[in-house]
Write a structure and sequence with these properties.
This protein is an alpha/beta fold and 270 residues long. It has nine helices and six strands; from the N terminus they run ααααβααβαβαβββα. It has helices at 3-14, 21-31, 49-67, 72-77, 94-99, 109-113, 132-149, 169-177, 230-247, and strands at 84-88, 123-127, 159-163, 181-187, 198-204, 216-222. Helix 7 packs across helix 9 (230-247).
Length: 270
């Protein structure tokens, strides 16, 4: 083996081998359109050290998002002047919540009795889901932007801040409130490129045990600047809510026709 061949081999094992200029331009162009990890190169038979460390950091951020405690004060303080109510699911702690999804869909009986029942048109439920970070950062701006777009006359219930909660808990909460519709803002299951993604689930005539995913409309990946912007999400939600009231239903019977390419469709709970 020549000295040059040895140097090339050592560089391939220890460093990121520089791609050909044409390859570098190709991957750079593709990366502008996705957060997926593509064209990372290799160091020997493994990922380059930098990308391996980035992957480990992303995995740690995802785990932190799932296990971090929800702080309702963070959301309440970002909604000055907006009344809030705090509730819990039937899951007594985070570990039980993760192991027993069914308990996260049921409202605590004591908290149910304290909800202010009235003839509300819409209830917003902020649920920690699988990423407290997502609701801490994005829930309040979405609520403010959405309520600002609702037609005059809508009766909005106090915002419900729900701990250890999954999407279907919103059915129980809204039914106890007497609300005609519910929007559940929930922390979505974190991935390796996003640990702060917020989902918004809209359900008409919510009732415990009645609705399925086919009865809901969902907006996913609300997390500017890399995901759906607040204004876009709010405009979508307000439009869907208005049409749901006219139609008398959500889910497969309600289609988004706003025409900007972001569609509110039924999806599987995160």
């Amino acid at each position: 083996m020549t000295d040059r061949q040895l140097a090339v081999l050592v560089r391939a094992l220890l460093d990121e081998a520089a791609p050909e200029p044409s390859d570098a331009a190709l991957w750079a162009g593709l990366r502008r359109h996705t957060q997926a990890r593509i064209g990372l190169g290799r160091a020997g038979s493994a990922l380059p050290t930098r990308h391996r460390l980035e992957l480990q950091a992303a995995h740690a951020a995802a785990r932190d998002a799932v296990h971090s405690a929800f702080d309702p004060d963070v959301v309440a303080s970002a909604l000055p002047g907006v009344p809030t109510v705090r509730v819990r699911s039937a899951a007594p702690d985070r570990l039980t919540y993760l192991q027993r999804p069914d308990l996260g869909r049921r409202l605590d009986d004591v908290d149910r009795a304290h909800l202010p029942r009235d003839d509300w048109d819409i209830a917003f439920v902020v649920a920690d889901g699988l990423s407290s970070r997502a609701v801490h950062e994005h829930a309040a701006p979405v609520i403010r932007a959405t309520t600002a777009r609702l037609p005059a006359g809508w009766r909005v219930a106090p915002v419900v801040l729900a701990e250890q909660a999954r999407v279907a808990l919103g059915d129980d909460v809204a039914h106890a409130l007497g609300a005609g519709m519910v929007v559940v803002l929930v922390g979505e299951r974190p991935g390796m490129s996003a640990a702060d993604s917020l989902g918004a689930y809209l359900t008409y005539a919510p009732r415990p045990g009645r609705t399925t995913d086919a009865d809901r409309n969902c907006l996913s990946n609300i997390r500017p600047p890399l995901g759906l912007p607040y204004d876009t999400a709010a405009a979508k939600l307000a439009s869907l809510m208005t049409r749901a009231r006219e139609l008398g239903g959500t889910g497969v019977s309600l289609k988004d026709d706003s025409g900007d390419g972001v569609v509110g469709v039924p999806t599987v709970e995160g």
